[in-house]
## 1
Amino acid sequence: MRPTPRTSSPRRYLMCPPAHFSVTYSINPWMDPTKPVDLPLALAQWEDLRDRYRALGHTVELLTPDPALPDMVFAANGATVVGGRVLGARFAHAERSDEAAAHLSWFRRNGWPEEAVRLPEHVNEGEGDFAVTASWILAGRGFRSSPLAHGEAQEFFGRPVIGLELVDPRYYHLDTALCVLDDARDEVMYYPAAFSPGSRAVLARLFPDALIATEEDAAALGLNAVSDGLHVLLPQAAVGLFEPLRQRGFEPVGMDLGELLKGGGSVKCCTQELRP
Ligand code: ARG
């Protein structure tokens, strides 16, 4: 089989430097507050990701880190932007709830009109649980985002929202278990065991040609990846994903975000996409 010809398209990302990153509480099984974090290393790893995006021709916008919010580096959780419309986040845990306002005020200060920005009614953790394909918005639930937020997103964006039930606490956000590889073609990779049987059947029906990740690669957070249509930036430890990605015509780019993994996040968690 010949690989599909791939092209990258320029993206705009919102990121937040891990200047105050630490693991002081535990709201997912990856977080162990007794394990020390190497802050300078976390910063260097994050800068490497930011620089990589820029070298690939993408725009990276920056959010100012708040010393009271150690998880703020995981910028994907702060909002969901589709078609220039911004659905703010409402966090499930009090420890992160103030991040939502920081994101909303960034959008208001950076040119998004008031009517395009929504303060959400229901709990949703932004792109942690919303993934955008050509035809649908895939939406995770079970650990963080409320199923009611799925309806709210559908109404706000005017796109069909497909609810997916997460069942394994290690994969508490959709973006830890599924990655959109090509948002012009409805192409994804995912780890089936992270989903309920019904949601697995939905995924198999919508994405019969999906790249299926092994448990090992999923456990390296290999699905917490970002694709620009050609380059797929992913945790370098997810070695089993590289060859299948190449066979499909993608260029995998391995990143080391080992310090941020201690917070339960990697490439995608650090990256919110601002879709025009
Ligand atoms: N410590 C953060 C939390 O548990 C990690 C968030 C990771 N972000 C993501 N998009 N999966 O909320």
## 2
Amino acid sequence: PVRLGVFGNPVAHSVSPTIHSLFAELRDERILYDRMLATPAYFPKAVAQFFRNGGSGANVTLPFKEQAAQLANILTERAQVAGAVNTLMKVGSGFVVGDNTDGEGLVKDLNSKGFSVSGRSLVLLGAGGSARGVLPALLSLNPAKVYLVNRTLEKAQVLKRLLVDLSAHGAENIQVVSNADSINEPIDAVVNATSSSLHNIDIPLPGSFADNAWGYDLMYSETSTHFLKQLEKAGVKKRADGLGMLIEQAASSYQLWMGGERPDTTFVMSKLRPRTY
Ligand code: ATR
């Protein structure tokens, strides 16, 4: 079997082994996909050991995505722009390539849910690693306006400057804001890349939403996330959590490792009950 796995901390409840095993089953391929717990100090050694012992590819999840970008031998362009790696793969005799399929995963899931970005006013909440991972992909969909909102304004300013310096598509048009409720127009789309749902706390929402507005939380959970409950109260009818993105980024990673067609995600989606509240 092809040896794959995911590095994270915590990693015990990762759904990735289930997702990748289902892809393999559907395509009649043999893989071994392990959960690999690491610490920041031990992570570089753990990665080296995994590839030395026959590993072919690995996913990387919190809190190691930035560290993985440091230790990969080569980064794809989108991993460079994201400053973070969620997919490692061995090429040739020893080089390890770092890629990032998170943005592509989000875009695929938004497409399949009919959540459109092109020509619409978009609000991205957060300016940490998660926001940085998805912002370039959202910009590539040509929103009419992008508000980048972060409690610590300076972090949003730094992120905008970074993307402008990297000539990321549409980066010049980002408007940086410290509080979403100061935005003075009805918003079509809002993506939560803060940790608000992790801590079960409210974060400020845009003051008003367009009739057909949608909202997306990068976090996912068994029940509605805190952010999606907030959106429901605000009258936003189209809502989804990040389970669809997780499955789509996994499909992109699987294709990178195993070649061939991108795995079909519909079966896995129905099996894991993605929620559109
Ligand atoms: P990640 O890698 O998941 O993005 P992070 O880098 O710690 O994690 O970023 C967390 C994000 O959630 C940040 O944008 C953070 O805002 P600050 O930069 O101002 O810290 C945001 N966040 C966390 N708690 C928040 C809160 N109570 N209200 C508003 N934003 C919050």
